[in-house]
Amino acid sequence: MRICYLADGGSIHTQKWVNYFAEKGYDVHLISLPFTGDLHRNVKLHQLKPLRRKRLFSRIIPAIPTKSLVGSIRPDILHAHYITDYGFWGSLTGYHPFVLTAWGSDVLIDVTASRLSRLSVSFALARATCITCDGQRVLERIVQLGVPRRKIHLVCHGVDTENFNSDKKDPGFKHKLQLPADSLTVISLRNLRPVYDVESLIRAAPIVLARVPRTRFIVAGNGAQRSYLESLARSLGVADAIRFVGLISNDEMPQYLASSDVYVSPSLSDSGISASTAEAMASQLPVVVTDVSDNREWVKDGEGGFVVPPKQPTALAHAIVYLLQNESVRTEFGAINRKIIQQRNEYKEQMKLVERLYQELMLG
Predict the structure, then answer these.
(1) Does 103 lie in the same domain as 7?
(2) How far apart are CA 336 and CA 245, in angstroms?
(3) What sections of 283-346 are H helices per DSSP?
(4) Residue 20 in contact with residue 4, Cβ under 8 Å?
(5) Are 216 and 243 spatial neighbours (Cβ–Cβ below 8 Å)?
(6) Quick check: pTM over 0.70?
(7) Under a CB-based contact definition with an 8 Å cutoff, are residues 310 and 266 in contact?
(8) pLDDT digit string (tens) for 133-187?
(9) What residue numbers bound the domain in which 87 lies?
């Protein structure tokens, strides 16, 4: 089978999909804008020229070389990830079978940006042979945009539970981050953008520290809000307890999670379950997440962690404090979470679903 992906090669999600099928021996091609990241040696990469502008008509330009590349590759399956750009370009090729994967923001947020954005998304959805997404909320939104339910398949991005597990704990982790040896660590992996509301975690920090002074917060990711959040931490008097560590490499992520005590995602919007939340659960961490998207389908409040209202730093703080003060609960919740991911979000099992879908499409 020859598979051609249209997707951002710099995304770990893209890398997981293309690398899986390359490792399985399929003839895998990837068409992407320039990126940095690791691909399997057997992936055949075709790079588009970088976009110089973000205006709508400038964003249509990559569709021209994309159509030519797809025509020369002649794949058995054309599969585009993220509808607003790669999905739209793929739909303009007219090639079939054409699989489209929604990542969340493309159908939940981008379509509200302008009438033209909504039209481009609707255009791509209408021309897809089938569509995959990783959450019920996204599925329902796609149906609202006019797609028959029978064309939509639920497929999670998946977690490699052999890589994300509690055995990856790093004994030198606290020393590396200059944390006290007896500290308890709370980790956030969401990017520093308003939609992920890391601000609520920073505002919760003084409440947590008043109850559990040896707490230290690890705030990963980058984004437009970084300097603002660092300034906020200083103004609240908690800067010494927070480590802004920037982007964590894919290789280091399992160690960061396994070496932490509590994971927090204060996000205001997600697709299904966020990748970092699923990875934290696989790493046997208790989690505190906001009541958005499909979080309640993955985290039962009071069993694997806590589901709190969005933009409520006090509620967030109380949940964190409870977990930090109860080691046995952290252990119990972590074990529950890992089992859930193993049963419902295992990477290789999710990719097998995609493999079967491809085979069905080839058979017509």
Answers:
(1) yes
(2) 28
(3) 295-298, 313-325, 327-344
(4) no
(5) yes
(6) yes
(7) yes
(8) 999 999 999 999 999 999 999 999 999 999 999 999 999 999 999 999 999 999 9
(9) 2-158+346-363
